[in-house]
Design a protein that fits this description.
Elements: E1 4-10, H1 14-25, E2 30-34, E3 48-50, H2 54-64, H3 68-75, E4 76-82, E5 92-97, H4 99-111, E6 116-120, E7 123-129, E8 132-138, E9 143-151, E10 160-163, E11 166-169, H5 181-186, E12 192-199, E13 202-204, E14 214-216, E15 240-244, H6 247-255, H7 278-284, E16 292-297, E17 304-308, H8 316-323, E18 334-336, E19 339-346, E20 363-365, H9 375-394, H10 407-418, H11 442-452, H12 458-480, E21 482-483, H13 485-494, E22 504-505, H14 506-510, H15 517-521, H16 525-532, H17 538-550, H18 552-569, H19 587-596, H20 601-605, H21 612-623
Parallel strand pairs: 1-2, 1-9, 2-6, 9-20
Antiparallel strand pairs: 3-5, 4-5, 7-8, 8-9, 10-11, 10-19, 12-19, 13-17, 13-18, 14-15, 15-16, 16-17, 21-22
Helix pairs in contact: 1-9, 2-9, 2-11, 3-4, 6-8, 11-12, 12-17
């Protein structure tokens, strides 16, 4: 075999899969190295994709030409659009998946991707020559060479798992840890640290009293993750269930805290603030007498269930004893206990926005090795790292997404500008341009850009053009079509909205909160004809057009703000200042600017500790 490649991707998790597929689909000869081909894209924790802000990331991955959305749609056993009661900027798709089918669907995609080879092995060392990565060495003593290398090792680097006082090495349950790779990377000046995450018990569904929980059904409308014209959901759709902990549960957990690795000093690394263990919840919120739990199916036919909300590293007998105090779980039987895991990550402030290392040329990092948590955050980073690793092979310009273009852009900018002091999770509140970054228009934002670099294929681009054309047709008709009061007043009263006193344009009616495009089409035949002529992705296009119309003022205002900030993004400052000798700015600003070495004035303004007055100094000096 010829082990010479353009791009090598280390790790077959969500970041690695997207990175390898992206690089290969851009024409780079790519090799994905994974320890177990039967665990490709393994859902290490919950069997679900999407959620608040995370669903938007998955739609962005799909819009760019990635596969997480397509695989999720094919493997979904429940779909819901979260935050329906709020504005469309907050709507977030989420799907339960069949864990086993998810793995094999991904594997089938990768094995049949041109330019992509899979090698089952474990990477022990990176090879660096003259400050540039040139390949990797593996446990099989195989040397693979490449022009770019992407590290996506997840939680495997020096992984250590905990259940009570028991500790054992591993990257996740029943899978070995990876040794030497961290040290192989840090010897060149790349900084590493430790983080912690955890997962709950897996339950045998035959032991559960479902009638003592609240059923949570999915939705069966047109929504899905992928913008491609694919089937929505082909697997049997299943419910989830909700219940709560109680004071008896909390008492048992409280009494057992001395045996918790999180509280007895056994675990010393940083855990996730926004997905805490059950023992952390009872300590942080001592006044709460219950916490919600969500029981989620792991697959279409399996009895295995995931208990969302009960992540724990307490001793196994304590976990079972506490759960038995919940009525629905009084006869509980588990497949395995929850556990915590500690692992190495690398300082993301040592990366460029392309996710290339500032220290070692052509070496990229993506996923949990950058201090993030979540499949979606990993997949988004994998896309960008894979794209840029392929671009580096041909010597092109880096592909970078702005904060006003994508949640992926927000995620990466936060990582490289601010760094992490805990596992990073995406929220809508992290994005200052939420109205621009809606889940309904990720294709409008990103597919064109991806098509320009050769990743999004022509069929995807044609679907985008068709969608945009139909949306504009609806909006143009609404802007120009005049309505007479006597034509619609009776119908308006029936729809619960105020009659017209005089004629108006159709768009003025659409902007009324009581009305939508479909209800108006029922009373205006000409408009109904416009909508009925949209036969391809009918509901998706109508919803997108309605959002564009109803939120036009908010969208335009946010675009104006983004345009002002973009002026600062265009002022390049990397390499122009000797910050150590810049006495006109604060000491803290000097230290932070030296560490981050921002690309632009805008990025500098987002660095914690760099004040507006410091930015003004840089602006004045940059003009000189």
């Amino acid at each position: 075999m010829d082990f010479k490649y353009d791009v090598i991707v280390v790790g077959g998790g969500h970041a690695g899969c997207e990175a390898a597929a992206a690089a290969a689909n851009m024409g780079a000869k790519t090799c994905l190295i994974t320890m177990d081909m039967n665990k490709i894209a393994q859902m290490s924790c919950n069997p679900a994709v999407g959620g608040i802000a995370k669903g938007q990331i998955v739609r962005e991955i799909d819009a760019l030409g990635g596969f997480m959305g397509l695989v999720t749609d094919e493997c979904a056993i429940q779909f819901r659009m979260l935050n329906r009661s709020k504005g469309p900027a907050m709507w977030s798709p989420r799907a339960q998946c069949d864990r086993g089918k998810y793995i094999w669907t991904w594997r089938s995609i990768l094995e049949n991707t041109p330019n992509l080879h899979i090698w089952q092995d474990q990477v022990r060392n990176i090879i660096v020559e003259n400050g540039e990565v040139t390949g990797v060495k593996t446990c099989w003593n195989v040397t693979l060479s490449a022009k770019s290398v992407v590290i996506t090792a997840g939680t495997f680097l020096n992984g250590l798992m905990h259940v009570g006082h028991n500790q054992w090495p591993g990257g996740r349950t029943a899978e070995p840890a990876v040794y030497d790779l961290t040290e192989s990377i840090t010897q060149y000046g790349i900084n590493s640290a430790r983080m912690k995450t955890g997962t709950p018990v897996r339950i045998d569904g035959r032991s559960i009293h479902y009638d003592e929980m609240e059923t949570q059904d999915g939705e069966c409308d047109f929504h899905k993750f992928s913008y491609m014209n694919t089937p929505q959901r082909t697997l049997k759709q299943l419910p989830c269930w909700t219940t709560n902990t109680n004071e008896e549960v909390h008492k048992i957990l409280q009494e057992s805290l001395p045996d918790s690795p999180l509280f007895n000093g056994q675990i010393k690394s940083i855990g996730p603030r926004y997905c805490p263990s059950i023992e952390t919840k009872i300590v942080t919120f001592p006044d709460k007498d219950h916490h919600p739990l969500f029981l989620e199916p792991e697959g279409e036919t399996t009895q295995e269930l995931y208990l969302n909300g009960f992540s724990s590293s307490l001793p196994m007998d304590v976990q079972i004893k506490a759960l038995k105090k919940i009525p629905a779980f009084r006869d509980i039987v588990i497949y395995r206990p929850g556990y915590a895991i500690e692992y190495d990550f690398f300082d993301p402030t040592q990366l460029n926005h392309s996710l290339e290392s500032k220290v070692i040329k052509n070496l990229f990092f993506a996923g949990q090795v950058n201090g993030t948590t979540g499949y979606e955050e990993a997949g988004g980073q994998g896309m960008i790292a894979g794209i840029n690793a392929a671009i580096k092979v041909g010597g092109g310009e880096s592909f970078v997404l702005g904060r006003d273009e994508a949640y992926i852009g927000v995620l990466i900018d936060d990582l490289v500008t601010k760094g992490v002091d805990e596992p990073y999770r995406m929220f809508t509140s992290r994005a200052e341009y939420r109205i621009l970054l809606r889940q309904d228009d990720a294709d409008v934002r990103l597919t064109g850009r991806s098509h320009e670099i050769g990743l999004a294929k022509q069929d995807r681009y044609d679907l985008l053009c068709n969608k945009k054309e139909n949306i504009e047709k609806i909006i143009d008709f609404a802007k120009n079509y005049s309505i007479k009061a006597d034509q619609v007043n009776a119908a308006l009263e029936n729809l619960g909205t105020t009659p017209l006193r005089q004629g108006c344009k159709l768009i003025d009616l659409i902007n009324r909160p009581q009305l939508n495009l479909n209800s108006i089409a029922d009373i205006i035949p000409e408009f109904k004809n416009i909508l009925d002529n949209i036969t391809d992705r009918h509901d998706e296009i109508i919803e997108a057009a309605e959002i564009r119309i109803k939120y036009a003022g908010y969208i335009d205002r946010e675009k104006q703000i983004a345009d002002k900030i973009e002026r600062l993004e265009n002022i390049k400052i990397r390499g122009k200042f000797d910050y150590a000798n810049l006495k006109a700015i604060s000491t803290e600003a000097r230290q932070k600017l030296i560490k981050i070495d921002p690309e632009t004035i805008a990025q500098a303004s987002r660095i914690p500790g760099v004040s507006p007055s410091d930015i003004n100094v840089l602006l004045v000096l940059s003009r000189k």
